[in-house]
Amino acid sequence: MNWQAFWLSVELATIVSFVLFAIGIPVAYWLTYSRWRWKFLVEAAVALPIVLPPTVLGFYVLVALGSRSPLGRWWESLTGHTLAFTFEGLVIGSLLYSLPFAVQPFASAFGTVDTKLIRAAASLGDSPALAFRRVVLPLSKAGLITGFTLSFAHTLGEFGVVLMVGGNIPGVTRTLSIDIYDQVQDAQYASANTTALALLVISFVLLSIVYGLNRRSWAVRPWK
Amino acid sequence: MNLVIMFLRLALALLLCGSAFAQELTVAAAADLSTALPEIAAKYKSETGQEVKLTFGSSGNLTTQIRNGAPFDVFFSADDEYPKQLIEAGLAENSSLYTYAVGHLVLWVLSGSTLDLEKLGMQALLDPSVKKLAIANPEHAPYGRAAQSALRHFGIYDRISGRLVLGENVSQAAQFVESGNAQAGLISLAHALSPAMKSKGRYWMVPSDAYPKLDQAAVVLSHSKQKQAAQKFLEFVRSPEAVSVLKNYGFGLPVETHSGGERTK
After folding, report:
1. Is pLDDT larger for residue B159 or for residue A170?
2. B220: domain range?
3. The pTM is what?
């Protein structure tokens, strides 16, 4: 197993899931409580990465954010390089790519909190922000962990965007999924299998955590 | 009910005779052929009526696909190693193996680049403005291996290796430079001369003694159900008509290059 690629993928997934946790909560809050009539458009935009092929995102990161576009030149003047072939480029691509996997579980968890409890908190003198922090957030714990875990797992398994904009640089953009791809192309099936199996087990464990958390009750424990 | 069964039978019969008379040839080809081969295939179709479907990728990538049963009839590699491996594995016909062209490696930059390729050649890459140099992935693309040897030949590999970005195949490496994301690339002459890139940049020919010769070989694949038709297409690629297309895109001919240039392998 290529440990450099392994830790790079873990680093990318960790950064992305923490940032999405921070961005996702206010976005999900707004999506849950806003009564704006055009809200559905924002909901559709947030859900886009679920249906868009990664090549669309890869194409835009590469061309629309490349040195030929104004946006790309602005980024270049700011940082000295284009987004492609950099770890930041992968982080930005992954943030977009995994956004719905954080926001949607958050929003659905917020949505299921009984509004009577929020009103009760308000009647006891809590400001909306305080009521959100003291009532909604604790009651949405399972949804928050789900969103965090899913965005982590989804980023870990990202391939298309990285293949298109990464440039396959060891330690910078050669993630685990790219490493597997290279090994398969090079007919090194044994080592590809080791890495693929590791990803399979990790993904299974992460998804088990998600589904375990979301069981309604543990009245029947699996080990009994 | 009977009607449904009859309809299904009819559909099945149509499907079967469709495959029995399938005339389409499926060709897997190295990415550096992505402009020349469609032209050749179009000429072939207008002459013989034979439809040729083309799939492009890195030679290593395509070899893996063929090893795993990809239904191609002919394989055009960017080297002669991959076809030989397929012959050894019993997946390609030894008798059909032949070198159809010799590939050339060039250093390519966008027209707006300030690099003086004519004067400095490969040493131009040491300029600090070259933040990224795009090459094809040496693990499965012959042009990537050629680029790596050329960089070693000029003694700048160690100084430049931190700035390398790897394309999936030579087309992606070219696209990295063409889109302005990499400042220079070691790509195929065929890409540099392609209509899409010709007017956008300029190139410097990497001397052919700087890398192992890119003898590009083609083979008919053993599991092809239309080996004769496949062989016919291979023969057409040898015809003066097809050769002139290959020459237009900068490919050399195997006979020409046997006389000159030393082999470093």
Report:
1. B159
2. 22-102+214-259
3. 0.79
